[in-house]
Amino acid sequence: MSTAEATILLVDDHSVVREGYRSVLQKQPGLRVIAEAADGAEAYRLYKSEAPDLVIMDLSLPGIGGIEAVRRIRQWDKAARILVFTMHENAGFAVQAIRAGARGYVTKTSPPETLVRAVKDVLAGKIAISPDIDHELALSRISGESSAADVLTPREFEVLRLLLAENTTEQIAETLHVSPKTVANLHSLIKDKLGVGSDIELVRLALRQGLLTEV
Amino acid sequence: MSTAEATILLVDDHSVVREGYRSVLQKQPGLRVIAEAADGAEAYRLYKSEAPDLVIMDLSLPGIGGIEAVRRIRQWDKAARILVFTMHENAGFAVQAIRAGARGYVTKTSPPETLVRAVKDVLAGKIAISPDIDHELALSRISGESSAADVLTPREFEVLRLLLAENTTEQIAETLHVSPKTVANLHSLIKDKLGVGSDIELVRLALRQGLLTEV
DNA sequence: GCAACGTCGTGAAATTTTCCCGGCGTTCGT
DNA sequence: ACGAACGCCGGGAAAATTTCACGACGTTGC
Questions:
Q1: A-contacting residues of B 190-209, CB under 8 Å?
Q2: Residues whose beta carbon sits under 7 Å from strand D
Q3: Gene3D superfamilies, per this entry (chains A, B) (predicted)?
Q4: Would you call A13 an interface residue with chain B, using a CB distance cutoff of 8 Å?
């Protein structure tokens, strides 16, 4: 990788977007795109056959998602260098991606220079995180990143689960044999503990943390 | 437009993705990208100052969404030609976009040729829809299912989108330049029209219909 | 021109959310 | 054994939100 060109595998389900990566990366000497994949399975296959020095991977992919693709590639090659490049400006996703084995996380809103820098950093063995995500991670670290199951008592967690299951306050009260007032109080307390202001945010938080799977 | 080059305004909040459009379109004779915008407001401003022959517009934009941007541009110039190019493979979005005044709807999973063809079709005055969305529209027509996009007015749909984007009533009111009371009224009306009793059900419905993608 | 509809907003009632409170039982460290 | 801390349950009242009824305005379509 140091003497010759660094080879790159692009993974994104949008062909025009891959064209964008290509266009940006081609301007950099020492980088060469040798393959492209439109989904996770194809990325895995191509990684094994082409052995690129770096993978640039989107997260929202058909079939197995990007995170799972990262995990599989890393399972096959512990030294694989994978840079996640995604639209999700979300610290939670970044944590998951890095834990799955990614060596970098850059958002698509970043300017091309940020992507190029991240590519070089990862090739040099560093971990690359784009500034916006760095910032968000710092914020969540400071404010204590309310991780649902963690800050909630068992009872609160149960109520949250039922709330997400589309039950009304009255139905939950009956299920739990308590007063609707208690459920309402818990509902309010849950939102407070999780630091969300509305039910909509609550559902989204639950989705992020995998509390709500089937839609 | 027929004799000289056709001028194009690109709207997408991801710079690398704009680079992709550019790269694909540059290969076509007779097309020239003259401006780029990263959000709806900037798109509106640039449309007025640059008067491009065609706008290629993403839907998920910061601030006012793509649909609203389409509406405003068309309000200013009834003859504006706008081609929506988005990741949302969802017939509901397509319906809303066309109703708002877009002349085409192409998904980002489409091959570059499809985008190029759509650009030429829209410039020639036709309505361009990518095959996958055509198919989905046909299916929904057959099964006769009423999606959120069908029963909601454009304005209601826009408010729904903003609600799902974790905005508060006040923020939405400010974004749309209306009274918070109006937003609250619409919020209530939306829940009524969609037959849901709570915000939690609302989010779940939106998820089922693919209106909510980024978590 | 008129009817129908979308949009925006007000006001008042109905409901929900939130906050503060106390009681009860359990756990835990001293 | 004892107090302190905490989880759990709910009442009461204030605060905020939701809902409903209603009217105004512009546009569209017949």
A1: 197-204, 207-208
A2: A 153-156, 176, 178-179, 181-182, 185-186; B 169, 181, 184-185, 187-188, 191-192, 197, 199
A3: 3.40.50.2300
A4: yes
In Å, the largest CA–CA distance within chain A is: 72
* Highest-pLDDT range among A82-91, A171-180, B8-17: B8-17
> Nearest-CA neighbor of B50 among B75, B28, B24, B32?
B32
Q: Name the DSSP class of A28.
A: S
Annotated domain spans of chain B: 6-141, 148-214
> A145-168: per-residue pLDDT in tens?
445 556 777 777 778 877 887 678
Q: Which residues, 6+ apart, have CB-to-CB distance to B121 below 8 Å?
A: B104, B127, B128
CA–CA separation, A91 and A189 (whole Å): 24
Architecture of the domain defined by B148-214? Orthogonal Bundle (1.10)
DSSP class per residue in B30-43: TEEEEEEESSHHHH
Mutation target among A10, A13, A14, A16 for the B interface, most CBs of B within 10 A: A16
**Whether A87 and B14 lie within 8 Å, measured CB to CB:** yes
CB contact under 8 A, B109 and A215: no
Which pLDDT does position B96 carry in this prediction? 76
Higher pLDDT, B86 or B154: B86
The amino acid occupying position A31 is L
- CB within 8 A of A207, min separation 6: which ones? B207, B215
- Closest by Cα among A36, A78, A35 to A61: A36
In the block, tokens 């570059």 appear at: B112
The reported pLDDT for the residue numbered A36 is 92
Residue A147 tokens read as 């991780």
Amino acid identity, position B160: L
pTM of the model: 0.67
Report the top-level CATH class of B6-141: alpha beta
Per-residue confidence (pLDDT) for residue B54, from 0 to 100: 92
Q: Tell me the nearest-neighbour CA distance from B36 into chain A, angstroms.
A: 14
Residue of A nearest to B38 (CA): A109
**DSSP letters of A98-148?**
HHHT-SEEEETTS-HHHHHHHHHHHHTT--EE-HHHHHHHHHHHHHT---G
B23 at interface of A, judged by CB pairs closer than 8 A: yes
| C-beta atoms of A203 and B199 within 8 A | yes
Any idea of the CA torsion for A115, A120, A123, A129, to the nearest 10 degrees? -50
